[in-house]
């Protein structure tokens, strides 16, 4: 077990984010500890994805600080690229390179960014593809795979960089219903292996099953955070009660 489990890994302090006059994030304070799975939920437009994207600086922040493993996010350049390598990101759309095989998609980062030897990168990539259940697809192109398989490849690609934390921005929302569980099962497995994860999702079952903490956002604010058990059975804020009541009726 990781001896450092439980120590802060991602610290978001007093973060504000504006798009012109619109404030997308207001006074965001969030600490994610090593080995913790934090599930971010809330209505559409609540700032969940924006928050997720600020953590590896795909979105800049207006003010405040974000640190990963004690280092503040650099503005740009090589330092940012190096820090980004510590932060795996899985998007709603799979963003695989369509002209590269599955194996090449997964080895590209380790070879290009980390200078890994091709043979070593391929060996590790095959092990990761096995882990996410698509080892047989290694020589195919992305278009030959289902959406669920492509998303599992995207997870393997992020893991290939050996990140300290994994960010998931609605990883199942573009998938057909029957493919959602195959992706969530991989994510549950990662959580059980102790991977630090921040997951923006509408999948409440995943939040209950794999989350250590639920962060509920609305209107660019963190309204409430609690254990999944507490949040789903006894939400404290009216906003969360309203959100949950609408979920249960559908």
Automatic annotation (TrEMBL):
GO terms for molecular function: ATP binding. It is a peripheral membrane protein. The keyword Metal-binding does not apply. The keyword Cytoplasm does not apply. Keywords: Amino-acid transport, ATP-binding, Cell membrane, Membrane, Nucleotide-binding, Transport. It is found in: Cell membrane. Its main location: membrane. SMART domains: AAA (SM00382). InterPro entries: AAA+_ATPase, ABC_ATPase_HisP-typ, ABC_transporter-like_ATP-bd, ABC_transporter-like_CS, MetN_ABC_transporter-like, P-loop_NTPase. Residues 10-244 form the ABC transporter domain. Belongs to the ABC transporter superfamily. This is Amino acid ABC transporter ATP-binding protein.
């Amino acid at each position: 077990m990781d001896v450092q489990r439980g120590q802060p890994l991602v610290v978001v302090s007093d973060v504000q984010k504006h798009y012109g006059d619109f404030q997308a994030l207001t006074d965001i304070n969030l600490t994610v500890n090593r080995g913790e799975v934090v599930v971010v939920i809330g209505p559409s437009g609540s700032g969940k994805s924006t928050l997720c994207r600020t953590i590896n600086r795909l979105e800049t922040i207006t003010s405040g600080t974000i640190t990963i493993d004690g280092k503040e996010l650099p503005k740009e350049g090589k330092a940012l690229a190096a820090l980004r390598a510590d932060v795996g990101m899985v998007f709603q759309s799979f963003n695989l390179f369509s002209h590269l095989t599955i194996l090449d998609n997964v080895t590209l980062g380790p070879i290009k960014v980390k200078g890994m030897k091709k043979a070593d990168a391929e060996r590790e990539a095959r092990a990761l593809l096995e882990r996410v259940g698509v080892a047989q697809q290694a020589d195919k192109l992305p278009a030959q795979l289902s959406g669920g398989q492509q998303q599992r490849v995207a997870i393997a690609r992020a893991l290939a960089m050996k990140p300290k934390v994994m960010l998931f921005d609605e990883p199942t929302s573009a998938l057909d219903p029957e493919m959602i569980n195959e992706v969530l099962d991989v994510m549950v497995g990662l959580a059980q292996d102790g991977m630090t994860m921040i997951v923006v999702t509408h999948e409440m079952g995943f939040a209950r099953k794999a989350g250590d903490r639920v962060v509920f956002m609305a209107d660019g604010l963190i309204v409430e955070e609690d254990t999944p058990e507490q949040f789903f059975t006894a939400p404290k804020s009216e906003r969360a009660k309203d959100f949950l009541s609408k979920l249960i009726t559908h």
